[in-house]
Amino acid sequence: MRATAGVGAVVVALLPAGLVIAGARSPSNSAIKAATSIRSSLAATALVRSPVLAPDLGSVLSSSQHLGPLGPSTLLHLSLGLSGRNPGALERLLDEGKTVPTTEYDSRFGPGPGLVAATEKWLRAQGLRVSWSSGDAVLAVQGPAEDVEKAFSVSIGRYRTKARGAAQVTSFYAPSRPPSLPAGTGAVVTSVLGLDDYPLLSQPRPAGGASCPGVAGPQAVGGFTPDDVAGFYNFGPLYKGGLNGAGQTVVFMEVDGFLPSDIQAYSRAFGLPPPEIAGPIVSQTWHTPAVIAYGTSGCLSETDLDLEVVHGMAPDAHLAVYQADPDQQGPPLTYVADALQSAINTYPHSVYNISLLWCEDAASAQQFEALFIQLVAGGGTAFVSSGDNGAYARGCPGHNLTTQEPADSPHAVGVGATTALIGAGPSYGREASWGEPLEQWGTGGGLSAVFNRPSWQSGPGVVNRYSNGMRQIPDVSALGDLDTGWDIVIDGKWDMVGGTSAAAPLWAALTALTDQALVHRHLAEVGFANPAFYDFGSNPRHFPAPAFHPVTEGTNLYYPATSTGWNYGTGWGTPNASAVVDDFIAYERGSG
User: Fold this and answer.
1) 589, exposed or middle or buried, with CB in 10 Å at 0-12, 13-18, 19+?
2) What span, in angstroms and rounded, lies between the C-alpha atoms of 346 and 283?
3) Alpha carbon 400 to chain centroid, angstroms
4) What separation in angstroms does the CA of 392 have from each of 61, 354, 412, 448?
5) Per-residue pLDDT at 171
6) Which of 229, 231, 217 is nearest to 502 (CA)?
7) Closest among 345, 335, 300, 324 to 499, alpha carbons compared
8) Which of 40, 242, 514, 562 could form a disulfide bond with 567, CB atoms 3.0-4.6 angstroms apart?
9) What is the 8-class DSSP label of residue 201?
10) Domain boundaries along the sequence of the chain
11) H-state helical runs in 243-323
């Protein structure tokens, strides 16, 4: 994310990925910091404690002022990750492009109901409230701090520290040690999120409450319009064939608000139909009420960007916005995980756009991977921004080459970004891997430290001199450089916006069109997209037309684009939209 000029942005750990505003002042490396939330991995055997403090947070705690214990009546919300059953059999089905009906998933592959029931019974006996439905990948737990401490054998203290590079003081709570659970629960509980509320997300706002920068209309912005993008990526044949997203739903996981008037103004400017938006969908289960949920957007609203990109490219798709704690008064990942679980239960076959990122950590990565597995098993597809710091994750432990969550999940599609130069017409011109060495911005990509490289992740360029046997991201990409960004309405003003979170919703919109075409032909929807994408990239001659524009120029501040095949900045490349749809039709028919 790049802050608007005059905005002092303090963003820690949970960041809207890829929101970049034209004319912005690039912050220093210390202006944006992302530290890892305290997360607890529960070992398979009960009462065996695993490390809970990430290196950066450990140093934060050691230099923080301890303010005493957390108030015993403070309401805490936890999210417990649960292990499923028969993972090998499920993976084989998914790799073959098959989906699993909900009842079958619950009975064969979801967490064991008996084990979960025993865990629920024990938690209730500790005075805690629990919420779980058959098949859910997470178990929601609520209760006062004193009961949480007793149940998990921890002491939770309050701390105060000054975030590095920031002027304000951060207050937070955190546990004294890793949690433990009694015998029996370790067989199903894999992770615990929510024993801390550090770090927090501060939404950037104009200094002195001034209005957001921008101009009155799109003509003065100079970025891409929906028609430009449609020409650039060859959406025209899809529209001429009657595809518009009708009957499809795109779900957005968001942490900030949006203005309905913004997307309405965007629609009027480009002759689009009025948007059909459900939400923001909130629940007391995960959400602390806040007026920001529906009525303000702020200068850097990720939600405005996501909605407008999808509506511009799939104008008749239904849009469902899940607002996961936009005021950030609770543990962010806990709220996001539970909101995602709720969305999957309501929209199991839909396309998901997730433009959020945080530091990679085994416990949270495992929890979100379980959610994505449940989603794709039901026929849904998730597109996740890969991040905007190139091959690095500023603020994460070690400042080394790294990937970020949740784009690292093998069952989500990681989406990178390019610098796009439009051709005449408009038509496709050329693209380069997005990387700005002076500003230290670029398309996220690299090697996971948590997940092994899946069997389907193969093909030209995949195994390379950097490979180490771990999952590699991104999988695909689309335009995202600020200098070749989108014309977007935010807070009533027009700006040119970019980043990888302009790229992910483009792919979500294209997949909504693809699903519409597949349903019309009585074929299965895209669902788990990655095996198909890697088949398209590896064997283009087996399909009607090449699905991707390969990107062979530029770097993501470390990894170079390559002359052929997959690379760490842009994956297989950017979409030839009409070919993507044709190739999925052939893939589902088994003729690819």
Assistant:
1) exposed
2) 13
3) 21
4) 24, 19, 20, 12
5) 81
6) 229
7) 300
8) 562
9) B
10) 39-193, 206-589
11) 260-269, 302-313
Terminal-to-terminal C-alpha distance of the chain: 39
Over the stretch 84-94, which tens digit does the pLDDT of each residue have?
Answer: 999 999 999 99
What residues pair up with 142 in beta bridges, in sequence order?
77, 129
Q: State the Cα–Cα distance between residues 286 and 329, nearest whole angstrom.
A: 11
Q: Which two tokens stand for residue 96?
A: 């073959």
Amino acid residing at 357: L
Q: How far is CA 291 from CA 36, 95, 294, 570, in A?
A: 28, 43, 6, 38
pLDDT digit string (tens) for 490-516? 888 898 899 999 999 999 999 999 999
How far is it, in rounded angstroms, from Cα 202 to Cα 481? 24
SS3 state at 312: helix
**How would you classify the pairing of strands 276-281 and 318-323?**
parallel
Residue-wise pLDDT tens digits, 303-314 = 999 999 999 999
Looking from the CA of 188 toward its CB, the CA atoms found within 13 Å total: 22
Residue with tokens 């997307």: 263
206-589 is classed CATH 3.10.620.30: no
Map residue 383 onto helix, strand or coil. Answer: strand
**Predicted model pTM:** 0.88
Q: What is the mean pLDDT of the segment spanning 219-243?
A: 91
Share of the chain above pLDDT 70, in %: 79
Instruction: Indicate the burial class of 163 (C-beta count within 10 angstroms; 0-12, 13-18, 19 or more).
Output: buried
- DSSP assigned state of 132: -
- Classify each residue of 342-366 as buried b or exposed e, where b means 16 or more C-beta atoms within 10 Å of its C-beta: bbbeebbbbbbbbbbbbbbbbbbbb
Give percent above pLDDT 90 in the chain.
Answer: 60
Residue 298: which pLDDT band, with cuts at 50, 70 and 90?
low
588 vs 592: CA distance, rounded Å: 8
Q: From the CB of residue 2, how many other CB atoms can be counted at a distance below 10 Å?
A: 28
The dihedrals phi and psi of 560, each to the nearest 5 degrees, come to -85, 150
CA separation for the pair 417, 500 (Å, rounded) = 5
Q: Extract the tokens encoding 246.
A: 């009708």
Task: State the DSSP H helix or E strand holding residue 477, giving kind and residue range, or none if neither.
Answer: strand 476-479
- What residues contact residue 112 under an 8 Å CB cut-off, 6+ apart? 85, 187, 188
Query: Is 240's pLDDT higher than 80?
Result: yes
Q: Phi then psi for 64, rounded to 5 degrees?
A: -95, 155
Residues 6+ away with beta carbon under 8 Å from 107:
none
Q: How far is CA 73 from the centre of its chain?
A: 33
Distance set, CA 114 to CA 118, 180, 197 (Å) = 6, 20, 31
**Nearest partner of 328 among 2, 3, 14, 7, judged by Cα:** 14
Give the single-character DSSP code of 187: G
Q: Name the CA dihedral angle for 365, 366, 372, 378, rounded to a multiple of 10 degrees.
A: 180
